[in-house]
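Exercise 3.2. Students should predict the tertiary structure of the chain below and write it as structure tokens, then compare their answer with the key that follows.

Predict this chain's 3D structure.
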Amino acid sequence: MIELRTGTRIWIAAGVTDMRRGFPGLSAQVQMILKQQPFSGHVFVFRGRRGDTIKILWADEDGLCLFAKRLERGRFICIRSGNTMVDGFGQAG
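Answer key:
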């Protein structure tokens, strides 16, 4: 089980992300678009173009973690807010 620290924010990338990206590409997106540090302990969520895949980037005390989830049916909801990232409550980051 993943245990998040108190004060951890969940950031959701607005729009779609190239799901071929791994640690370096997603970390760069966090730094360049959001102006945050990937090792901050916050959670960063990215959605693929088809909407059936998300990737989650998160750092704990041992290092950076990358999780992926693909749905067999259905799609993840797309949040549209220009070319920015929004936090888990839909407010501009």
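Discussion points: Residues 10-78 form one domain. The longest strand covers residues 53-60.
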